[in-house]
Amino acid sequence: MFNPKTQRILKLAEIYPKRIAEMEAIFNKRTNIYIDYANVRPWSQKLGWHVDLKRLKQFLDSFDTVNEIKFYQGTLKGKEQSETIIKQAGELGYIVKTKPVKIMKISIDASSVPNDSTELLKEFIRQPLLAKFRIETIQMLNKELKSLNQQGIFHIIDLKSNFDVEIGRDMLRDFDTDSLDNFILWSGDSDFEEPLKQLLADKKRVILFATARRVSKELNRLRSEGLFIFDIQKIKEFICYRRELAT
Fold first, then answer.
1. Within this chain, do residues 53 and 148 fall inside the same structural domain, yes or no?
2. DSSP readout, 30-88?
3. Is 1 part of a structural domain of the chain?
4. Each residue of 166-213: pLDDT tens digit?
5. β-strands 228-231, 95-97 pairing
6. Which residues form the domain of 55?
7. What is the pLDDT of residue 171?
8. Are both 136 and 183 inside the same structural domain?
9. Are 90 and 12 members of one domain?
10. How many Å apart are CA 202 and CA 161, to the nearest integer?
11. Residues 92, 172: one domain?
């Protein structure tokens, strides 16, 4: 049942009644929501607007069948913006799951690599794609790396914080311990194929909240097994920053 948490949501519901009807159909029974924020946040580049965590929480809380909203995001220690997001999510009432972001120092030292070698490039480019490159492309890429070396750059920093194992485990654990009917995942990552497939095989209703061209082919294939994909563009007015509504 829809019970708007704010007057603004109530007014928007009056303007967009069909959207609320769609959401009520999705949240028709007891539901858990899993937000892979590292996957969701970059969607703004495609959408042209950002998901406001406060407005999202208020909107989701307006449906009384929502049981838990779990929020997964890594913490980059010492970075105020990263730590603020985690703190804000907790204060808003999300069930926050976090862990330190791994900082990896990766060598790009090509000083001893022949120009036509793929030895260093294979660390960054998957072999099936690398095999398609012409020798001129290989040589050009190696020259670019050596150019960086000449500028004194021999390493790059990569940040890693993947929650696919934790989210998949939590979904299956919730299936075992809670009387849930609906599992809603905010992500488009192919790593979730197996847990979603298992839930669908167990006759659970699984919905993916995502955006166009941000859903992997592996998850798209699960449509034939019952996966429903909901485009979050439909609920922009309810969940984006208010300053972005005019754009």
1. no
2. -EEEEEEHHHHTTHHHHHSS-B-HHHHHHHHTTBTTEEEEEEE--B-TT-HHHHHHHHH
3. no
4. 999 999 999 988 789 999 999 988 889 999 999 999 999 999 999 877
5. unpaired
6. 7-101+161-244
7. 94
8. no
9. yes
10. 29
11. yes
| Contact between residue 90 and residue 97 where contact means Cβ atoms under 8 Å apart | no
Show the tokens assigned to 114: 């022949």
Q: Going by C-beta distance under 8 Å and a sequence separation of 6 or more, which residues neighbour residue 213? A: 46
Q: Is 109 exposed, middle or buried (0-12, 13-18, 19+ CB in 10 A)?
A: middle
Q: How far is CA 198 from CA 27, 218, 238, in A?
A: 20, 14, 31
Quote the CA–CA distance of 15 and 25 in Å, as a whole number. 18
Domain total of the chain: 2
Is there a domain that residue 33 lies in? Answer: yes
Q: Are residues 22 and 78 in the same domain?
A: yes
Place of tokens 């007891």: 30
Closest CA to 156 of 109, 203, 107, 85: 107
The closest of 238, 220, 207, 173 to 5, measured between CA atoms, is 238
- Given a cut of 50, the residues of the chain with pLDDT beneath it are none
Asked whether residue 2 is domain-assigned, the answer is no
